[in-house]
Design brief:
Blueprint lengths: L1 E8 L3 E3 L9 H11 L3 E5 H5 L9 E5 L11 E3 L2 H6 L7 E5 L1 H7 L5 E7 L7 E2 L8 E9 L9 E8 L6
Parallel strand pairs: 1-6, 1-7, 3-4, 3-6, 4-5
Antiparallel strand pairs: 2-8, 7-10, 9-10
Length: 165
């Protein structure tokens, strides 16, 4: 199963200048609990935004740079090849950035989205979720507090089954 996991603002903003725009500790905890022990697929810029590889996860990096190397990581040049490197009977996660989410949308079975209830200036965006293709199956609203400057919601979408014509 391929799951996209992201945090995006109400205007679909993901980040600016290869950085997150907000700090939501509970979102980080959720990301860690869902992705630990799994393959995570990301673009090169997303990988390079980390201070070091994320522990207890297999990193699959997509890049057009044919000589790119990252110690202990799998490097490929397409979303299709990235998915092929993941175990078939396990959940694998697409973790960004914006272009990788767009490329992965047709291959994904589930979306775990944190919606930050604010609008931000950004240069990377999450693709539109087409309601003809996706069903919202769970939502959990969280109120801002001393550690979270914005209200946010955890949302889970699953791909709708295609009905025969």
């Amino acid at each position: 199963m391929i799951t996209m996991i992201a945090a995006a603002a109400e205007n679909k903003a993901l980040g600016k200048d290869n950085q997150l725009i907000w700090h939501l500790p509970n979102d980080f905890k959720r990301f860690k609990s869902l992705t630990t022990g799994h393959h995570i697929i990301m673009g090169r810029k997303t990988f390079e935004s980390f201070p070091k590889p994320l522990p207890n996860r297999t990193h699959v990096i997509i890049t057009r740079q044919s000589d790119y190397q990252a110690e202990g990581c799998i490097v490929v040049d397409s979303i299709e090849k990235a998915i092929e490197k993941c175990p078939e009977n396990e959940e694998s996660f697409i973790i960004g950035g914006g272009e990788i989410y767009r490329l992965a949308m047709p291959y994904s079975d589930k979306i775990e989205l944190t919606v930050v209830h604010h609008v931000f200036d950004a240069d990377a965006f999450f693709p539109e979720i087409n309601p003809d293709d996706w069903q919202l199956t769970h939502t959990d609203f969280q109120t801002k507090d001393e550690k979270h400057l914005y209200d946010y919601s955890f949302e889970t979408y699953v791909r709708k089954q295609k009905t025969p014509q």
